[in-house]
Amino acid sequence: MRRPEFDPHGSARESTGKRALARGAIAMTLLALSTRAACAVALPTDLSDLTLEDLGRVVISSVAKAPEPLAKAPAAVYVISHDDIMRSGARSVPDILRLAPNLEVFQTSPSNYVVTARGFSGNNTAQNFPNKLLVLIDGRSVYSPIFSGMYWDDQFVLPENIERIEVISGPGGALWGANAVNGVINIITRNTSEADGGLLAVRVGTLESSAAVQYGGALGKDAHYRVYARDVRRRELDNASGRPARNGWNNPQVGFRVDWQSSPDDALMLQGDLHDGRTDQPGGSDARSTEADVLARWQHTISGTSSFQLQTYYDHVHRRSSNDGGSGFALDTLDVEIQHGLAVGKRHQLLWGLGDRIYRYDITPRIAVASSLLWDPARNTQNLANAFVQDQVTLTPDTQLTLGLKAEDDPYSGVSVLPNLRLSWTPGQNTLLWAGASRAVRTPTPFDVDVREKLGPVLFLTGNPVFKREKLTAYEAGWRGQVATRATVSVSLYYNVYDDLRTIELSPTGLPLIWGNGMKGHTYGVEAWGSYAISDWWQLGAGFDAQRQHLGFKPGASGLLGVAQAGDDPEYQGFLRSMMNLSDSWTLYADLRGVDALPDPKVPGYMELDLRIGWLVNDKLELSLSGSNLLHAWHREYPAGDRIGRGVSLDARLNF
C-alpha cells in the first residue's frame, strides 16, 4: 500500500539536458552583450552584520504568532533570508529548505521530497509517511489532512518573492495546532510594494530547465500588485538500480498578489495561485496534480498596544493517476481564523485567537487484481476547530515568561489540550538563554481510520475506528550568543517523549491487520549553527545536528516490522558554507554538506558540494553558473529513492 496518491514516472534524456545547456549558454551570452543598464538587481555589499543587535532587526512571527525580534525568540528557530535564497541559486522550496541546519531534506525523485525536523522521516515499507511537520505559506496550511503529510510537488513560491522562511524545530502545537509536532516551516512572501517593474528569470540545465516572468506596479496611491507565470521541466533520474526511472516532471503555475494600505491603521492582502503539474509514467498517460488557492487577510491596528487580524483562505487540490485505474482524490479546504493582540498593563502581552477549518474530500479508490486501496467512507466533510491564548509576561527587564494554551477539536479524537511554557533570559546585551516545555499531538486522519487494503479478494489491512492521537511531550533549552565581534552561535538541546505512535497490529483472527498505537519512546539531540564574517566581503557559516532515538513497543503490541517503521533517520548531518562578494559585480557561493547513513533500510551516507558563481552584468541583468552534487556522479538520499545526479545550470535574471 502507498500513501493516498499516485506514483509518478516519466522520461527525458541526459543528452537533451546537455543540448539545452549549450543553447542556453549562447542565448545568455547574447543577452548579456545586448542589455543596457536600468535598475533593480543589486548585490549586498556588507556581509559582516552578525551581532545580536543586528539579529534584533530581523523580525519573525512564527514563534509567538506575532512580530518579535529573532534575537529574543525563545525557540530553536533558523531564518532563511531573501539574500540567502538568492545567493544559493535554489529554485524549489525543498531545495531552499536545505539551507536550514535544523531540517532533514531527502530527494526521492525529480518532483518528490521528504522533509522532516528532529527525525521521523517515515518508512515506505511500513506505510508510515512523514507526518509531524506543519508547513505554512503566508499563513496557509499546506499539509494534507487526508494523511497529515506533504506533497512537495504542489508547493512552489517564486524565490524572488520570498521575504524569509522561518524554520522552527520543536513543537508549536500551542499556537499552530495539529501537525506542529516536531517543527513548523513558515514561508513569508514579500509585500508587492517591493516588486514594481518586471522580472524575467530563466534557467537552462542538465537536470532542470525553467522560466518565470513577473510584473508588478501601483494601483493608485495606496495599493500595489504583482502577477507571475512560470514553468519548470525536470528531467528523469535513474532509479535505485541504475535504470531510467521515466519520471520527468513539469509544473506550470500562475499567480497574483495585491496589497492595499487602505488607511494608516488598515492593511489588506489578497493572493492566489493555480498550477497543473504532470509527471511522466511508463506505460500510461501523465499523472496530474492540480491545485488552486486564494487567501485574503485584513490587519487592523486598534491602538499602539492592540491589533486585530482576520484571515481566510480556500484551497482546491486534485491528484489523479491513470496507472492505478484512475485513482486519486479531490480535496477542498476552507479556513477562517481571527487573532487579537493587546498589552495588558506594563507586563503582559496577550494574544488570543479562534479558527475553524472545513475540508471535504472525495477519494477515487485504486482497484486492481493484485491489490486494491479503498476508503470507507470515500467522501466526507470534516472540520477542525480551535481556540488559543498566549501571555508573554515580563518578569524583569531581562526575563520573560511565555504561557500558552490551545484547544483543538478534531473529527476523530475530540478535543486536544496543548500547553506551552517558555522562559527566556538575556544576561547581557549579546546573550540569550531560554528553556521550554510543551505538548503537541498528531491527530487521526482518514488514512488512520478509514482506509481498507485488499490483496486480491482478501482484506489485508484496515483503519482503526478508535485510533488515538500520537502524543509528544517536549523539553528544550538553548543559548544564542555573540562569541566574537563578527561571530554568532546558536545551540539548542531537546528531549522528546512520544507515546501512542502508529504501528501495525494483528486483529483477533490474524487478518486483517489493523493500525494501532503500540509504540512509545524518547529521542534527544543537539542542533547548532553559527556564522563568522572574516571581512565585509566574506562570510562563513556552519551547522550541525545530531539525534538519538530510543523507541520500543508497548505491552501487547505485535512488534511487526520493528521500530524502524517510525522513521529512517540519519544520526547526524552538517554543512559548511562560504559566501563571498568577490567584487562589486561577482559573487561566489559554496555549500558542502554531509549526511550520515540511514540505518533501516540502509542507505549510505554521502557528502556533496554545491557551487554558484554570479555575475552582475549591470544594474539590470545577473547571470550565474551553478553546479549541484559536484563530488560524485550520483548518490541516493532515501530508501527506494532515485539516484540524485550531478547537475549544472545557467541562470539569467533580468529586471525591466
Q: How would you sum up the global shape? A: globular
Poorly predicted regions are: 5-16, 25-42
**Number of DSSP strands?**
39
Roughly how many Å is the radius of gyration? 24 Å
Helix content: under 10%
Structural descriptors:
globular, mainly beta, five-stranded mixed sheet, 26-stranded mixed sheet, 57% strand
Provide a compact summary of the structure.
The protein has 656 residues and is mainly beta. The protein is built from 6 helices and 39 strands.
Record the SSE blueprint:
Elements: H1 14-34, H2 52-55, E1 59-60, E2 68-69, E3 76-81, H3 82-88, H4 93-97, E4 104-107, E5 113-116, E6 133-137, E7 140-141, E8 162-169, H5 173-176, E9 183-189, E10 197-205, E11 208-219, E12 223-234, E13 249-250, E14 253-263, E15 266-281, E16 284-303, E17 306-320, E18 328-344, E19 348-364, E20 371-375, E21 379-396, E22 399-410, E23 414-428, E24 431-442, H6 446-449, E25 451-455, E26 458-462, E27 470-484, E28 487-507, E29 510-535, E30 538-553, E31 572-581, E32 586-595, E33 598-599, E34 602-603, E35 606-616, E36 621-628, E37 634-635, E38 644-645, E39 647-655
Parallel strand pairs: 6-9, 26-29
Antiparallel strand pairs: 1-2, 3-8, 4-5, 6-7, 8-9, 10-11, 10-39, 11-12, 12-13, 12-14, 13-15, 14-15, 15-16, 16-17, 17-18, 18-19, 19-21, 20-25, 21-22, 22-23, 23-24, 24-27, 25-26, 27-28, 28-29, 29-30, 30-31, 31-32, 32-35, 33-34, 35-36, 36-39, 37-38
